[in-house]
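Session log. Operator J.P. requested a structure for one protein chain; no other inputs attached. Running the standard single-chain path with token output.
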Amino acid sequence: MIQRLVAFLLCLALPSVSQAISVDDHPYLRAMVDRLVSEHGLDEGELTRIFSKATLRPEVVEAITSPAERLPWSRYRSFFVNPVQIESGVRFWKNHEKELLRAERETGVSSKIIVAVIGIETRYGTTLGSHLVLDSLTTLTLRYPRRRKFFGAQLEQFLLLTHEQSLNRLAIRGSYAGAIGIPQFMPSSYRQYAVDFSGDGKTDLINQTEDAIGSVANYLRRFKWQAGRPVSVRIASNPNLDAGLPGSKPRLHTTVGELRAAGIKVAADVPDDLKAGVVGLDGKNRTLYWIVFENFHVLMRYNPSVQYVMAVHELSTALKREYRGSY
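Structure written below.
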């Protein structure tokens, strides 16, 4: 998940709640500990000790309610698609060209998409997050009831992940929402989709760029990425457009051929039979429109924000252009 810049500024002044957490004071945690002990063989004493060292952090709740995806598109885009991001991305691409080509060959996910995802998530592995993951997930489980089921499940997955990989639960840092490592995988995704792409016997998304590259590619492949097919294409405004709302998942309710028949100009290399939808986002002076395809939906499995996916697409396009031009 993205490190929300605006939310970070909002929460700097909020104090942390430092009292020890007793599992027995929280039925949800009590049930979780009992389940981890009975079903997975974790040590009850160790789990209660770990929770006693966790800290409830109000700034985490503040951040989760003020995501950057609520910013206008032009402002949101400027955070992630800019000369510094593009230059850094081209350098990352060149430094890891061999691994990226292998990931593309094995999964069908293009190098430009893998680089763009990592660039937006952690600025190519340079900003992995400053929040203790245990604190974030415990806070959201106990203090954010609207999504307790989701974050409680992620907390449980985090405890399993750290047990399986012998990781220090009190030291791992990530996003305020509990995402971990170079590609910012939530703990459940880490356990299910991360791969040992380096072949060193470990699946390490925190320190191993090669594992991060392979894991992003594997994640998108598992959600049925279509090799060689587009994410979206920009189109001009047209009275026949049926654009989805900016905050909703776009419906693939038509085909490229039907859009062409309605008078909408689409690049000649996009096949008529592709399922398609239309999204509109606010530009500086007018609404901007794109046709989106099934790969757009696949990227929304990584982050369910239309603006996020559009930023990945636009950054990947800029990266490919500059990468090719550098040779």
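Operator note: Residues 232-292 form one domain.
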